[in-house]
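Re: beginner question about structure tokens

> Can someone show what the tokenized structure looks like for a real chain? I only ever see the sequence side.

Sure, here's an example I had lying around. Input first:
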Amino acid sequence: MQPSNQIRLTNVSLVRLKKGGKRFEIACYKNKTLEYRSGTETDLDNVLQIPSVFLNVSKGQTASSADLAKAFGAKTPLNTIILEILNKGELQVGEKERHAQLDRVHHEVIDIVAGKLVDPVSKRVYTIGMIEKALEKLSSQGAQAQAPTQKEESKSSGTAPPTNGEPCDPKGKGVEPPKWTGVVTTRSAKSQALDAMKALIARQPIPVARARMRLRISCPTSILKQATKAGANNKNDGGGDAAAAAAEAGQPKGTVKDMILSFVEQVETQDVLGQEWELVGFVEPGAFKG
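And the corresponding structure tokens:
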């Protein structure tokens, strides 16, 4: 016979948070906890199995008011404490759930990367399978390179000069291209996809380049030759130096047309239609980051 104060751990996901020298736990539904953290579920009643804070869920040992007051503050409401544990605590899930979550993030990362990288020659996108194989290759290379590096660091705390021809930073350490070691569940798929793209572009296990945006820009001809206040503000190398040189020579820092062209990596067509100037060209998406 099961004691009345003991909770049978079926379909339960524990969220644990250490604070004030104690470990606090709440009992949640497995799927609902992940949905709440992703923002798809907002009703706390659908997430919690029991609206209480425990020291040990499996034994049914609830946290006393003194323990909660010491860790979270005497005037902190119970719902606020539960929300803090739910948002900041460590989610304890089973092996199957962990693998399912890892697979979901993995597929999201692959989908994002496959949609943003192309073959630099043919300009065609790669299949999801080819991107996945390229990342697996980088992941295995990163794991193999990490093991000898850790052994060398444990033997000596000094820094040896690079012998593989890589450039050095001012402190004498080799500047290493971005690595890819695989997907984790603790970071968003979007941020991991950006890291994966950086590693693929830097290491080139297959020929890849960032897909460029094709834009059509139109502007009245009456303002094309007007001077801009800040100049072209070119994101590409050399644009800022040209603007500075022009300013030192007493010339205008740049026109509106110069500013527009500074963002365009490759001009496809440009023409004047009546009183409108129209340009079609390719731009690098990263040039528009603030």
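Each token stands for a local structural state, so reading them left to right follows the chain. The longest helix spans residues 128-155.
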